[in-house]
Amino acid sequence: MSDxxxxxxxxxxxxxxxxxxxxxxxxxxxxxxxRGSDGLRMVAEVKPDLVxxxxxxxxxDGWEVCRRMRQDSTVPIIMLTAKxxxxxxxxxxxxxVDDYITKPFSFAELVARVGAVLSRAHAGxxxxxxxxxxxxxxxxxxxxxxxxxxVVALTPxxxxxxxxxxxxxKRTISTELLLEHVWGPxxxxxxxxxxxYIWTLRKKIELDPGDPKHILTERGFGYRFE
Length: 226
Prior knowledge:
CATH topology of the largest domain: Rossmann fold
Oligomer: single chain
Low-confidence stretches: none
Number of domains: 2
CATH class of the largest domain: Alpha Beta
Structural class: alpha/beta
Helix content: 40-55%
Number of strands: 12
């Protein structure tokens, strides 16, 4: 049995039972909550490795749960919702969501995406060094970034994106290649993922996200860590 713990937060008990069954069959330990407040408490107390969070819940909805969770935790979050509009996805990305699954979905796809997000969160450094761009330092051993010596709170996906760019400093990496290396083969064609996360990353590491100095855009091709 894996030591990896997944927290499911959803008010649909039937769906929770089905998802928990498939996660259990995949070797994960599963804990559940059917209210947002209970989910927040369990994140603080249990410290799960990943959270699957439903958007539409009575009382405190998934957006508010996610916002509060991100105040204290960088735990990977996958949003689970019946909505598929672009606005909702943008809102989730801006709140620091790592992935977004729209109902109805296949359990095989959900398990695959959980595995992909966990791989990004737990991937170890390939080499032992730091990469510096002005006042920004990416420590590949500690898996963290600092600006003026202050640690930047990055989600696993944000860090993985920054890491891939930093490892290839001064080389322009195509958007398609970033998508493959950071998100994996299940996300082929989802170019908007890269664009959204480049923006959220710039907001955290750039003095002026609208005039970036660390992550530069090569129009029509990709991005470069300068």
